[in-house]
Design goal:
The chain is mainly alpha-helical. The protein is built from 24 helices and 6 strands. It holds the Pfam family Het-C.
């Protein structure tokens, strides 16, 4: 989602100097990514988990994980039962074959899908060469295409409503829904055999398409036979493996395990310094009921310590009682997280106006997070431990039941239903993770401006925009030149894979041919040795927001994602947690690739960035920063900014001259 930082937001929403529209802020990108992130964790509410633990307990755990990932946990970042939802295969373009082992999953939660109609849903549409559940909207089944269109249209309508209402809630919800739709569209690349089929279209002959060797067919507008587009069957084992842990010795550090360890560790730390740090902040930063944050922190701490927590069990034996208990917990935790969020947003707002703030704010960010986890630990640790225990107890049976399906595409020449674990590019270890990640980012960069244009212009047909986007993503690479209204999007995807492949050295291509061959995949050589994932949280260990590893939400690890900005230049997400002076400067200059470059140049003469993240020099005039009365620094004038972009390479050189600094 970092690519969105380079894109321009709707003119009707806000404009910069000289009437130029502003780019998406880092907090906007976090709001958008929150919708994307929620769809990964909705998989925690499925038959494989609700049989062993209450959905309310899962929502609570995911809520805390969200707080740790985004640095906020209330308002637009609150994880609720409605926002989290449940596992719906269509949201992830997952193959529904074998879902719930033939049971009606609605007996566990009415929001889950019903039994699979294998004849209709799993057949291949001869018009498109794709499985019916992906995009055949003519036979009365649930499809990913129909779902994405609906979500995109809702996102457009909410953005337009925001223009009329000026209510932040409408804008935030529009961003969340856009992130939800992007998740589904990105999952087409992550979960399907599109990349393998694209390589076959480029003339490769031995790339394994993850289907039986006798499944080639004729499709409309294509002269040669092709293998069908399919995705993997997503059993409970896949989510339990990637998120809940307990699968092998290498997966000891599951996200739930990490969460419990972090919360427990926070209890051991001293929080006495928070009050004195809050009292040192300039009074102009806070207003209203937060005008005396130190006093308010004392009151919240006293309230939390006065609560008497019941001995909770989160087993589903008495769901009504569990619902009542979990709701009581939420009511006790919410004021603590809400206070944290208000303070951190106030600080972040101040940072956006101040080029450099003292290290005091770093300390406040760290101490505030420690304070939060110290207060909520007695409430949530029993839940975390019980959820982990129940899930691990039920995982072994799920794992055993799915192993037989892993090699069906090797043993059945007519099989078109590979498993998710075998096919998906979600994990960094898969050799196609990087090219699919690049293609996903290029696709998002094609999608978002169309939504922004629709926000700006009510005359644009939202249905046509949604249909164009969906048709541009969901397609067989052999039909990349078809569908005139969506051909541009199709070529964006295909060209991204093509450019990656042709950009490799001959030796690299030859090595990949072996790994991607039928025998290479059977032997799991399409995964890199020594590369292991740790959940959906962003390609890094969990950590308290603003402190250490968990400070910055990125595209989650279970999605193809190359690193868009080098870690030492990460511009943060707006939740506090500054780790260096360059990071604070990046915040002041607007973040993104340009903000990172300008921030880095104050200490280093040149900065390396990925070329696809570059932004043209639009901030020259806006680099005059007025600080006001918050700090004694009055102005910073930056002139002589020079940006040289070398296309198709990974270098950008930025040179600025600070000609006047007034104190």
């Amino acid at each position: 989602m970092d690519v969105v930082l380079t894109l321009t937001n709707a003119r009707a929403f806000s404009s910069g100097l000289l009437g130029r529209p502003k780019k998406f802020s880092k907090l906007d990108v976090s709001r958008l990514y929150f919708g994307n992130w929620l769809r990964d964790y909705s998989q925690a509410v499925d038959v494989a988990s609700v049989r062993f633990v209450s959905a309310e307990a899962v929502v609570l755990v995911v809520w805390i994980l969200g707080f740790m990932s985004f640095g906020y946990g209330t308002g637009e970042f609150e994880v609720t039962k409605e926002r989290l939802g449940v596992y719906i295969p269509a949201e992830h373009v997952d193959n529904p074959r074998g879902y719930a082992d033939g049971q009606d999953a609605r007996q566990y939660d009415p929001r889950l899908r019903g039994p699979v109609d294998e004849r209709r849903e799993l057949s291949v549409d001869p018009r498109t060469g794709m499985k019916n559940y992906i995009a055949n909207e003519d036979i009365g089944i649930a499809t990913s295409s129909r779902l994405c269109k609906s979500i995109l249209q809702d996102a457009i309508e909410l953005g337009r409503r925001y223009k009329r209402s000026n209510k932040d809630e409408d804008y935030f919800e529009a961003l969340r829904l856009l992130g939800t739709a992007c998740h589904c569209l990105e999952d087409f690349l992550a979960h399907s055999n599109y990349a393998e089929l694209a390589l076959l279209e480029l003339g490769e002959r031995n790339v394994f398409a993850h289907v039986g060797d006798r499944t080639q067919m004729r499709i409309a507008g294509v002269r040669h036979p092709v293998y069908p587009v399919t995705t993997g069957t997503f059993g409970g084992v896949d989510f339990l493996h990637s998120v809940m842990g307990g699968f092998t010795d290498k997966m000891e550090a599951s996200e739930i395990g990490d969460l419990g360890d972090i919360v427990a560790e926070a209890q051991k730390k001293d929080t006495s310094t928070l009050k004195s740090l809050l009292m040192k902040l300039p009074s102009g930063i806070f207003s209203g009921k937060d005008s005396n944050p130190a006093q308010q922190a004392d009151q919240l701490q006293a309230n939390a310590q006065a609560q008497q927590m019941a001995n909770l069990s989160v087993s589903p034996r008495d769901p009504k009682q569990i619902t009542i208990q979990i709701e009581s917990l939420r009511q006790q935790i919410y004021p603590i997280l809400e206070f944290h969020d208000r303070i951190m947003k106030a600080i972040s707002s101040a940072i956006s106006k101040i080029p450099i703030l003292p290290d005091l704010l770093d300390k406040i960010s760290e101490q505030l997070n420690i304070w939060v986890f110290t207060l909520i630990a007695p409430f949530i640790l029993p839940i975390i431990r019980q959820v982990k225990k129940e899930v691990e107890g039920g995982s072994s049976a799920v794992i055993k039941s799915s192993k037989d399906a892993q090699h069906i595409v090797f043993n059945d020449s007519y099989a078109t239903d590979p498993t998710h674990s075998m096919l998906s590019k979600d994990h960094f270890s898969n050799v196609l993770n990087e090219p699919c990640g690049r293609a996903a980012m290029d696709t998002v960069a094609w999608i978002v401006p169309q939504i922004v244009d629709a926000w700006d212009d009510d005359k644009i047909d939202s249905r046509r925009v949604a249909a164009r986007i969906v048709a541009g993503v969901f397609h067989h690479p052999a039909q990349r030149g078809m569908a005139s209204d969506a051909a541009e999007g199709r070529m964006v995807m295909f060209s991204s894979i093509e450019n990656w492949w042709k950009g490799l050295k001959d030796r690299e291509r030859q090595e990949l041919r072996g790994k991607l061959s039928r025998e290479g995949v059977r032997a799991s050589r399409h995964h890199k040795d020594g590369v292991h994932d740790c959940g959906h949280g962003g390609g890094r260990p969990l950590g308290m927001p603003g402190v250490g590893a968990g400070a910055r939400p990125q595209m989650q690890q279970q999605r193809p994602r190359p690193q868009s900005i080098p870690p030492n230049m990460s511009s943060g997400s707006g939740q506090g947690g500054r780790t260096s002076s360059p990071a604070r400067i990046q915040e002041a200059l607007g973040g993104g690739a340009l903000g990172a470059a300008v921030g880095g140049i104050l200490l280093r003469p040149a900065v390396g960035l990925n070329s696809h993240m570059l932004v043209q020099a639009e901030l020259t005039c806006e680099a005059i920063i007025w600080v006001g009365d918050i700090m004694p620094l009055r102005s910073l004038r930056v002139l002589g900014m020079l940006i040289t972009t070398i296309l198709n390479r990974i270098t950008v050189q930025v040179r600025i001259e600070v000609v006047e600094v007034d104190f």
